[in-house]
Design goal:
The chain is elongated. A hairpin with a 5-residue loop joins strand 14 and strand 15 (about 275-285). By secondary structure, it is of the alpha+beta class. The two termini are about 70 Å apart. It folds into four domains: about 35-50 and about 310-375, conserved putative lor/sdh protein from methanococcus maripaludis s2 fold (Beta Barrel); about 50-60 and about 225-305, Efflux pump adaptor protein, beta barrel domain (Elongation Factor Tu (Ef-tu), domain 3); about 65-90 and about 185-220, OB fold (Dihydrolipoamide Acetyltransferase, E2P); about 95-185. Helix 2 runs antiparallel to helix 3 (about 145-185). The chain has helices spanning about 1-25, 95-135, 145-185; strands at about 35, 40, 45-60, 60-65, 70-75, 85, 90-95, 185-190, 195-200, 205, 220-225, 225-235, 245-250, 260-270, 275-285, 295-315, 320, 325-330, 335-345, 350-355, 360, 375.
Length: about 375
């Protein structure tokens, strides 16, 4: 009996000591509590916003002025910054060889006219003889038939000579007119109203057509500054709904805080294979010359959809470098939903995917919230 009690006491002691130890281990393991997150709902509405796009401003018309004939600059009345008007003489050339060509053409015309006069006189004489003989031949035996025939043939030949001389005179006149036209090219006139933006040559320099040896560079460059092209490369995703005549606003760095307005004038209707953009031009009336050609501009490009699409807060869209997704709360657990994004405006992003309006999403998505994670909406 004493031996049994000695064995029982250690057993009871160990049993009493072991229960608290088991309870402490169990209580140290935390239960998996739901993660509290801020949420947002998927919204559906029709997009009507603007997007800032870069643009290039260029003159409506611009031309490098080359002479049509080679010559030496005799006078140039404009310089960089000069304003010119259409038809105004801005450059005069001298070409002595054209004067020699004109003298030669005038002499050729005079010679052709003299030959024409001689041919007419000969035809008149021979034709008069023929007519006289023809009248006399009406009396039998007065004129031999052979003489009448010879006179007739001479008159016909002389008439042919007159016609040939007439054509020679016309050719000589055309040649003189061509030389005169070349001489007219020695005066270079402004093709339109504008401003001279470059001047490369000075009096005494040899200038010529762009295709010739003397046409290494233009004499001047003239640009239209009262009317400008604002060229906007519109990304492919934003080309829907572009229509001519629609007013668009833009800004330039030279005038901070000021907005300019111009209509859409020309649409290329072609997507570039390299840039995936479509060239669109605004037609800006720059009557006061505030905007300078060559400047960059920022255009407030209108984006309008004819149908409703889904929008979520931009922070609700995230990526793990392999997929772009939002985290939907379904049945109290996280669910990754793949999406593609559209326009971002006013802190919200247009999304396309297996979503519906009213779906509850994690407002600040991150890939650390794994699918199946228990979530609970944060109380407002």
């Amino acid at each position: 009996m004493r031996r049994f009690s000695r064995l029982l006491f250690p057993a009871l002691f160990l049993a009493g000591c072991g229960r608290p130890a088991e309870q402490s281990v169990t209580s140290s393991v935390p239960l998996s509590a739901p993660q509290t997150v801020a949420v947002a709902k998927v919204e559906s509405h029709t997009l009507n916003t603007t997007l800032s796009l870069p643009a290039q401003i260029s003159p409506y018309e611009a031309v490098d002025i080359y002479p049509k004939v080679s010559g030496f600059l005799d006078k140039i009345s404009v310089d960089r910054g000069s304003r010119v008007h259409a038809g105004e003489v801005i450059v005069r050339l001298s070409a002595p060889e054209l004067a020699a060509q004109r003298a030669q053409a005038e002499a050729a015309l005079q010679n052709a006219e003299a030959q024409h006069s001689a041919a007419q006189a000969k035809f008149a004489a021979n034709n008069g003889t023929y007519l006289h003989l023809a009248a006399a031949a009406k009396t039998p035996g007065v004129v031999a038939g052979n003489d009448l025939l010879v006179a007739q043939q001479s008159a016909v030949a002389d008439q042919a000579q007159v016609e040939a001389a007439t054509r020679a005179v016309q050719a000589a006149r055309d040649n003189l007119r061509a030389v005169s036209q070349l001489e007219a090219y020695l005066e270079i006139r402004a093709p339109f109203d504008g401003v001279v933006t470059q001047r490369n040559l000075h009096p005494g320099a040899l200038a010529g057509p762009a295709s010739g040896a003397a046409g290494a560079q233009p004499i001047v460059r003239v640009e239209s500054v009262n009317r400008l092209r604002v060229t906007v490369p519109v990304p492919e995703a934003y080309t829907a709904g572009v229509r001519e005549g629609q007013d668009v606003t833009f800004r330039v760095p030279a005038h901070p805080g000021k907005t300019f307005r111009a209509p859409i004038a020309r649409v290329s209707h072609d997507i570039s294979q390299n840039t995936r953009t479509m060239q669109v031009e605004l037609d800006f009336k720059n009557g006061d010359g505030e905007v300078t050609p060559g400047a960059f501009a920022t255009v407030d490009w209108p984006i309008v959809r004819s149908y409703a699409t889904l929008f979520v807060p931009s922070s609700a869209v995230t990526t793990d470098l392999q997929r772009t997704f939002v985290i939907r709360i379904s049945g109290g657990k996280a669910e990754w939903v793949d999406v593609t994004t559209g326009v971002t405006a006013d802190g919200k992003t247009e999304v396309f995917g297996a979503l519906q309006a009213g779906d509850v999403l994690v407002a600040n998505a991150t890939d650390s919230i794994r699918p199946g994670t228990a979530l609970v909406a944060k109380a407002n």
